[in-house]
Amino acid sequence: MVRANGAVSLRELARVVQTSEVTVRRDVRALEAEGLLDRRHGGAVLPGGFTRESGFPQKSHLATAEKTAIADLAASLVDEGEAIVVGAGTTTQELARRLARVPGLTVVTNSLLVAQALAHANRVEVVMTGGTLRGSNYALVGSGAEQSLQGLRVSKAFLSGSGLTAERGLSTSNMLSASVDRALVQAAAEVVVLADHTKLGTDTMFQTVPTDLITRLVTDEPPPHDDRAVTELQALADQGVQIAVAGASGNPGGDQVPAGRRTSLPGPRRSHVPGASPLRSATALPEPTPAERGRVADLRRR
């Protein structure tokens, strides 16, 4: 079985080589020590995560419950009358379906899937970029898309990608997609990354959003014993990223994190989002004033 993060399960490996899972687990640890593969929860994947990007049909069936929970929680961050940008991806498509209920909203996007999800929302204005259609993910890319975003200013950008690490931030496997995502980031005062736990700790070829520009990460609760994801969340929070964790059951107020797995995630920008599982204990900081947001926007334009 191939998991949502591209890993092959240990059970499947044991079946193929006709041996026990205990033996496979021991061999996988030895191969990881030699740098020949990376272990994932219950499986293994080729090292580094620099793999070819999956197309929309494959992505749409991966981690569906997690994406639903993330989209529910992310939608709660959007207020009536806001102007936002939403990037391409299956998770952002799920978000768009929920944004259709937010009155007075203006959504700028390069994604045909996002635009389609909002097409019949009569109280939401949809603005599409120009550009060349990239069929694998139904997104507009290229110089036309980037030029149409010049001079644009919105309150928030919602983006997803192929991988997220504290060291490099958000990344993707396609150069054209990465370039447009960077233009979307430049248009926003705040950047919200939507990434399920399978993308945490995965690094792909092209950086889209460095960690210091990510305001908030909306993710799902990592499964038990997924130390890699928890460690990455800790590292992201240490660099000032606000962490909002949704329940993987599709309910943003999902199960609480077991006490034995709670981790303190310090960070100057930490806050608690209603409906998020308390992965760490922290006091919510006040939202920045319009003047402070203006200064941040001025710094980014420089």
From TrEMBL:
Residues 290-302 have a biased composition (Basic and acidic residues). Residues 1-46 form the HTH deoR-type domain. Residues 246-302 are annotated as: Disordered. The keyword Oxidoreductase does not apply. InterPro entries: Carb_Metab_HTH_regulators (IPR050313), DeoR-like_C (IPR014036), DeoR_HTH (IPR001034), NagB/RpiA_transferase-like (IPR037171), WH-like_DNA-bd_sf (IPR036388), WH_DNA-bd_sf (IPR036390). GO terms for molecular function: DNA binding. This is DeoR/GlpR family DNA-binding transcription regulator. It comes from Streptomyces lavenduligriseus.
